[in-house]
Amino acid sequence: MRLWVKHARQVVRVVSDADPCREYLAGPAQKNCNLAILEEKDGIGLSIIIDRDGLIADIGYDDVMQHKYENQTIEEIIDATGRSVLPGLVDAHTHPVWAGDRVHEFSMKLAGATYMDIYEAGGGIHFTVNHTRNASEDELYGLLRQRLMRMLANGTVLVEGKSGYGLDAENEIKMLRVLERAKRELPIDISSTFCGAHAVPKNQTAEEATQNVLNEQLPKVMLMQANGELHVDSIDVFCEKGVFDVEQSRRILEAGKRAGLRLNFHADELTPINGTEMGASIGAEAMSHLEEISPAGIAAMAVKPSIAVILPTTAYLLRLKPPPVREMITQGVPVALGSDFNPNAYCLSMPLVMNLACVLFGMTLPEALVAATINAAAALGKQNTHGSLEIGKYGDLLILNAPRWEHLVYQMGDNQQVIGQVIKRGRIIDRTAT
Ligand SMILES: N=CN[C@@H](CCC(=O)O)C(=O)O
Ligand SMILES: [Zn+2]
């Protein structure tokens, strides 16, 4: 065995075999859910054992585990006396590959400029596209590496990462290749998303940009996918007034679906244009933002269901209307969380995201944990490997310097002190490495 964590005060499994659905939690199962939690009993702590493949081999009380495993060779033992153990977090929406920060735009926004004011004036995504196109693959990889290692240090073990600052075949592929390298070299799992329709390039109309994604970018990406040079999971579009309209978004997403990609896109963020209804009608696995979702959009998402990926940092920074999270949960839409890390929302911390989701959007602590673990994993189609502590899943754990898991969210802004150890596939992550 690779690792034995013993004597824990609490093990938060999130879901277990007792749950009728273990792939995601929705409706009453997410609302005020009874998280699957094991607590120390009569002074007997809890153990988790991770095998040589980095998978969870067993979870249970120390005395039972001692009896079962005392004769086995164990590479490493962690004494978790008095501490809480929970699954590594999953960040369901990020834009992590880019050059050129936008700190100057932060002051503009504080002074009252809206996101679209800055975008239409040639800043925002356009600013980042210029810098990203001019950066080499090595430069982008160096920046990405440092960001992903900081996410991991803050407890994220699986992250969705989008392209979308290239906007042409060459530069979108460059970004996807950078993500590919990170998958090979870094101890964090990545689900990559092709987002060539993230903005309309300055010299094109939205229709020309749509044609470019359909006829140039997507075919080239899929050719590299077929050759095994890329492993892209999903396709994304910024479906928004003044960017890609609902019909253009539908055409791009349907082409991606025909090519075998999951649908996971930006919908109804700044203006209510019924992008969500369209997404549900074509079977989107996940949709993000949703500040402007309609009641019909919520009902449509609840059917399949499509997973709602909520991004509190963006709503907070741009002072947007909060997405109707309570209504989504009541109607049975599974809610997940993402940091939306990008040059507009520079946040690498899922514990902070969970805190914002609770305080600003009225989520309960258990709802936020479900949203940042099993539901975020399900948004990426990774619910069979990530998002809960169950036998056979990846041995990805956070061991807190606290007796109860809620401290992760309650002690805000200081995650790396609260999280004592981040374990990925049974190995302790060196959080001083960047
Ligand atoms: N809304 C579109 N995309 C990003 C922002 C990207 C950017 O501003 O660079 C988002 O999810 O918030
Ligand atoms: Zn985004």
UniProtKB/TrEMBL annotation:
GO terms for cellular component: cytoplasm. Gene3D superfamilies: Metal-dependent hydrolases, Urease, subunit C, domain 1. Signal peptide: none annotated. One of its GO terms (molecular function) is imidazolonepropionase activity. It holds the Pfam family Amidohydro_1. It comes from the Eukaryota. Its EC number is 3.5.2.7. NCBIfam families: hutI. This is Probable imidazolonepropionase. It comes from Daphnia magna.
